[in-house]
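Standup notes
- DV: blocked on the single-chain target, sequence here:
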Amino acid sequence: MLIAPRHAPHRARLGISIIEVLVAMVVGGVVLALITMIAVRQQRLFTDLTDGVALSGQLREAATILPIDLRGVSVAARDIREARDTSVELRGTIASALVCDTLANGFVLAPTSDGASAYASYLTTLDAGDTAWLYTPTDSIDDWQPFAIASVGTPPSRQCASRGPHLSNDERALPRVSIALAAPPSSLGSAIGRPLRITRPARYSLYRASDGGWYVGEKDWNAAAARFNTIQPVSGPFLSPALGGLTFTYLDTTGASISLPVADTRTIASIRISLRGQTKNLTRVLGSAATTGKRVDTATINVLMHNRR
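- DV (later): unblocked, structure below
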């Protein structure tokens, strides 16, 4: 009887060959390179978008702040003190209130409140050297009379005079502000109940900061030192004055540009503000390594002057 020979069972091969290792490394390297390229491209796109958003925010911030003070000036009262192509000096309104009562040489202003019947509003504390403008209606035209403020005080809280605003019980307990005038009017009592606004000189201009960038800055008047305080940045950076970072154009009632510097600021009917800025980094073509230079953007605002007569 013949017996068939037995074969040894086939054993699975352990490990991988060097060729398989090389193929895996090459494929893995290609995949990692593709992932890296995509990540770098996305990072470049994100950087470009971030720079664009920052630039738009800088332009929008300046375009919002500058018109606030300009819309509140009285051209007829020469609130615009100096008008140039890259700067404007004006009397900025820092407070407005109804006259609540009188002093021997000035006025007591109504208190501020959060309710619907607010009779006063303050952007900052008042100081000697500010100017109080009293609304004075006449038969022919409404006028604002200027009075230099000699000192500021805090009178006792109580109800206003009979012709002044009627305060609620809560408002009667609120603190009030008094202003002594350097040259008070002859009839102080007739001013009770009239609107009054307080102004302080301010100057907006384009200046170069310590970091080398050009910023729109603002400096307010220091009455004690008889000079402007150190300029403070409002928004930026923008392009230099030579490249049109900030430009003021002053127009008359016909829409024609007024020669600079403006000799008579009462002729200004509107102001066109142009702002130009650029991105911090070079803009790339769809996130690639190729650049197209820094992106430049512009914002233009037209401000119509009020209180021209």
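- Follow-up: The CA atoms of residues 243 and 276 lie 8 Å apart.
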